[in-house]
Amino acid sequence: MRILSGIQPSGTIHIGNYFGMIKKMIESQNDGELFAFLASYHALTSVKDKEALQNNMFEAAVNFLALGMDPEKSTFWVQHDVKEVLELYWILSNHTSMGLLERAHSYKDKTSRGIQANHGLFSYPVLMAADILLYDVDVVPVGKDQIQHVEMTRDIANSFNHAYDKEIFILPKAKVDEIVATVPGTDGAKMSKSYGNTIDMFGSKKKVKKQVMGIVTDSKELDEPKEWENCNIYKLCELFMNEDELKDLQKRYETPGEGYGHFKLTLLDKINEHFEPYLEKREYYLNNKDEVKDILAFGANKARKIAQAKMEQIRELIGLKI
Ligand code: TYM
Fold it and tell me: What CATH number corresponds to the domain at position 9?
């Protein structure tokens, strides 16, 4: 089974990305052949600053390696190092209806929030389809917000296969873990870089504390019992705690005497405890940039071999060879 997923290096990686996708990807290295990449071309839709993009890419690579990405076992690269994806993107554009792209939630959501509509943003799902179809992928682990993009990939693959009367593309399936399908942010909406409600995965102690202390709650006082069911702090604790710990926390909510500040500190401890074991490896890679670059180049070579072979078949099929 071939598994593929990508993440945009468009800012600091947050715990929504981690639980929604990174954790599942790292674990899936034992289930099949994993392809994981940093979607640098996709990030250009939002990052227009050279140094920010470079730093984000490096940091994202470091974080994946620290969390256990195994570059020998898996294929781990940066999207723009395999240019074939852009050729396929154009070819697939000719099998993608305007109507399909106009229905994309992510595009509608971004433009409704005032982000300028440009062609990159509009055709984003076609590039994503190319990412997936180039590698004959069976499964794509993603958070809920990306399901529609994987469905669009299936639609595009289907039209293409139909047009040339050949099952050249496998129809991929999105894999979404219901519990973490949408990790809430500090304000209760979906955690997202573009909503400014994130909690960093490897942020400085000070920054993560500020983010956690900023979680929005109701205004119940210390001496009142509190409802854990709809509390943003509790929802985030669910990601880090086992059942017994959650039962204890529920009791603390129901018993007057503690305030939300206490629960926030409990969450903060859990976050620090969760990411602690990866810090040393992360520090190592941060200080060994050349090694990180070599790892990504090695991954790009592996990915490119597959991409080139697939593109040969596609060119042949559609008449791009005399
Ligand atoms: P990106 O960078 O926006 O997000 C990376 C992954 O994190 C998931 N995610 C979440 N999951 C749960 N709760 C949240 N609050 C949350 N926020 C983000 C996303 O669903 C995603 O899985 N288009 C992709 C990148 C991409 C890609 C691909 C993915 C480009 N090509 C091909 C798969 C296959 C994206 O925007 O990810």
Answer: 3.40.50.620
pLDDT in tens, 225-247: 999 999 999 999 999 999 999 99
Is residue 12 domain-shared with residue 82, that is, in the same domain?
yes
pLDDT bracket for residue 306 (50, 70, 90): very high
Q: Report d(CA 113, CA 125) in Å as an integer.
A: 19
> Does the residue 231 lie in any domain?
yes
Contact (CB, 8 A) for 153 and 133: yes
Atom of ligand 1 nearest to the CA of 124: 23
35 and 177 inside one domain? yes
Q: Which amino acid is at 308?
A: Q
42 and 118 together in one domain: yes
CB 274 within 8 A of CB 18: no
- 199 C-alpha to center of ligand 1: Å? 16
Q: What is the mean pLDDT of residues 165-194?
A: 93
In the reported structure, the alpha carbon of residue 7 is separated from the centroid of ligand 1 by a whole-number distance in angstroms of 6
Residues at CB less than 6 angstroms from ligand 1: 4-8, 16-17, 20-21, 39, 42, 128, 131-132, 140, 142-143, 145-146, 149, 180, 182-183, 190-192
Nearest CA to ligand 1 atom 18: 17
Assess whether 69 and 164 both reside in one domain: yes
Binding site per annotation, positions for ATP: 8-10, 16-17, 143-145, 183, 190-194
Mapped onto helix, strand or coil, the DSSP state of residue 276 is helix
Distances (CA, A) of 208 to 27, 197, 204, 216, 232: 25, 12, 6, 15, 16
In ligand 1, which atom is closest to the CA atom of 4? 34
For position 177, what pLDDT does the model report? Answer: 87
Q: How far apart are CA 285 and CA 288, in angstroms?
A: 5
Percent pLDDT > 70 in the chain is 100
Enclosing domain of residue 238: 203-278
- Going by pLDDT thresholds of 50, 70 and 90, the confidence category of residue 264 is very high
Contact assessment for residue 172 and residue 150, using Cβ atoms and an 8 Å cutoff: yes
